[in-house]
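Tokens for chain A. Residues wanted.
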């Protein structure tokens, strides 16, 4: 007999009754019924109920052990009595009568519970992550992660992609976030950078003639953590293709992404491959107030500025007259809502830093609120008719500069949808956002800057760069969005050296700057580069959505906390003086802020 186990804790069934078996695992729960001890024995695969009574030599040993102790049980498989069968357990038809026990490792008193799923302070959970990972939900999420990544790999292989590993120690790249720098011991005063993404390498693979590349790539960005992005590192399904249009990228990747979602969506519906809506960026910002819209929310934002050019509501007339806009967010069937609902939405907008959120109420065709009173019944009827609203529908307004109004309207659309229960939680709605601006205005530096990936091909090529207002140029740039989260981003790349130089010149860099900063890629483009494009899908975000988790730490093995600290391993930590000398570094302590 195997020294540790003949079966896992999920294998035994009524077919094994009467057999002598050996199981190993952790004590999940103990229930003492006065001379009869029940133990739920847990391993990676499942749980088996162990029974010991006064006839068992194992009883006194088991009684003295704490939960999470590791034991090996030798015993006999017995059928459970009819009234005690546990239909929720794979092994619920049987139990094992313990005839002997070996203690492999006794547990100390636990700093946090494992058997129960109640919330627990995050700092304790991360410090004792090895215990946290034993909890059922987190353990299940991690195994879902393993399965999702394996599924992605299989689908990419089936689509003709080859997996390549790109370097981890590399040069800095302009991906829009801070690099993690690694000092060189050999080259004093010089630093490697951990890759924010394998962007340049995957393009170089296309120049090298490999045609279809992918990898599950680790990426490193020194940026502030948020619920949908881990501090430090994250993983993406990175891919690149040669001789493709953006439509071919979409057609290739929709079955991969949709297939993975469908495989793990359970009862939830997933947008069919080939039917992902393609929404231009400008349209998304108008209708949804966001470039990552949640299409489960049926509310559509409308620009109603024209209705207030001449209006009795002076505030909106003044905003529109000075170049601002008024955006409307419907609030359907709110006739039974009290005035407090609308006032609470206004208060929420103010807490978010806006001047406020205007509103109109309507009940049985009667308009209410200051805006309706000042704009007049005739004007309101005309507005409602244009928007297709009914006699019991309310309306919210976001007014101001276009960017500010769009942002407030987008946030209000989400909140109204949530408050009114309009979001269909039974679906994964996927769409492409396309035709992103190539450039944007950097207000801080008072200059034109890249809006997204600087290596994208501008629509119109070098002719657009030389003849168009830069802020009107669109890029062959696209994002994939699911339920309000950006889950992938990509583009057709700029593979022509003269176009690359011109694109960077508009942002203030010279040809010499381009050659210095992106010399590898710039040189490669001199020697025959194919048209190419690709994308990167956020593995962590996709798994978070599939698991129904609200935070990426719930689907990651050993994440950092909100302050980018690894509480388990104690990182970051001070370096030894000897190490600093070898790296030619000296620590400069931050200056204390002046009092007051």
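Reply:
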């Amino acid at each position: 007999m195997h020294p540790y186990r003949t079966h896992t804790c999920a294998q035994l069934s009524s077919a094994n009754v009467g057999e002598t078996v050996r199981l190993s695992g952790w004590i999940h729960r103990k229930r003492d019924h006065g001379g009869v001890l029940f133990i739920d024995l847990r391993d990676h695969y499942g749980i088996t109920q162990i029974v010991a009574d006064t006839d068992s030599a194992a009883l006194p040993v088991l009684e003295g052990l704490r939960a999470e102790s590791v034991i090996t049980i030798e015993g006999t498989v017995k059928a459970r009595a009819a009234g005690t069968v546990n239909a929720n357990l794979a092994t619920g038809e049987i139990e094992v009568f313990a005839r002997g026990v070996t203690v492999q490792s006794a547990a100390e008193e636990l700093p946090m519970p494992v058997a129960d799923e109640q919330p627990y302070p995050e700092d304790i959970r991360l410090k004792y992550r090895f215990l946290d990972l034993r909890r059922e939900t987190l353990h299940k999420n991690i195994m879902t992660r393993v399965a999702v990544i394996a599924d992605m790999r299989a689908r990419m292989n089936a689509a003709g992609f080859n997996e390549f590993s790109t370097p981890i120690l590399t040069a800095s790249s302009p991906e829009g976030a801070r690099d993690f720098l690694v000092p060189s011991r050999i080259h004093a005063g010089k630093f490697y950078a951990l890759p924010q993404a394998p962007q340049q390498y995957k393009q170089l693979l296309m120049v090298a003639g490999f045609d279809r590349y992918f990898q599950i790539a680790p990426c490193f960005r020194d940026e502030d953590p948020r619920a949908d992005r881990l501090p430090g590192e994250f993983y993406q399904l990175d891919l690149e293709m040669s001789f493709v249009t953006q439509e071919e990228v979409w057609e290739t990747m929709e079955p991969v992404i949709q297939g993975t979602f469908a495989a793990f969506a359970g009862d939830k519906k997933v947008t069919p491959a080939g039917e992902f809506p393609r929404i231009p960026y400008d349209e998304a910002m108008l209708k949804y107030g966001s470039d990552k819209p949640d299409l489960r929310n049926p509310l559509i934002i409308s620009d109603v500025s024209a209705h207030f050019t001449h209006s009795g509501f002076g505030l909106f007339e003044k905003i529109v007259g000075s170049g601002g806009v008024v955006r409307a967010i419907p609030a359907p069937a709110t006739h039974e809502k009290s005035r407090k609902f609308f006032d609470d939405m206004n208060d929420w907008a103010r807490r978010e830093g806006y001047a406020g959120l205007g509103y109109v109420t309507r009940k049985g065709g009667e308009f209410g609120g200051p805006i309706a009173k000042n704009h007049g019944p005739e004007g309101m009827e005309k507005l409602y008719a244009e928007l297709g609203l009914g006699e019991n529908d309310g309306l919210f307004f976001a007014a101001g500069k276009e960017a500010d109004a769009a942002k407030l309207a987008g946030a209000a659309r989400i909140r109204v949808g949530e408050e009114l229960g309009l979001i269909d939680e039974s679906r994964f709605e996927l769409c492409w956002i396309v035709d992103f601006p190539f450039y944007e205005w950097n207000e801080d530096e008072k200059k034109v800057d890249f809006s997204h990936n600087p290596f994208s091909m501008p629509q119109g090529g070098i002719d657009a760069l030389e003849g168009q207002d830069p802020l009107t140029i669109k890029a062959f740039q696209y994002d994939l969005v699911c339920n309000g989260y950006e889950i992938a981003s990509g583009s057709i790349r700029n593979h022509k050296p003269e176009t690359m130089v011109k694109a960077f010149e508009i942002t203030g860099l010279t040809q010499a700057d381009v050659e210095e900063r992106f010399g590898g890629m710039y040189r490669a483009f001199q020697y025959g580069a194919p048209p190419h494009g690709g994308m990167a899908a956020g593995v962590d975000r996709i798994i978070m959505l599939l698991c129904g988790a609200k935070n990426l730490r719930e689907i990651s093995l050993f994440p950092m906390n909100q302050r980018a600290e690894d509480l388990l391993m104690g990182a970051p930590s001070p370096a030894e003086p000897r190490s600093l000398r070898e790296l030619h570094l000296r620590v400069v302590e931050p200056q204390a802020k002046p009092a007051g």
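The first strand starts at residue 20 and ends at 32. The CA atoms of residues 353 and 408 lie 10 Å apart.
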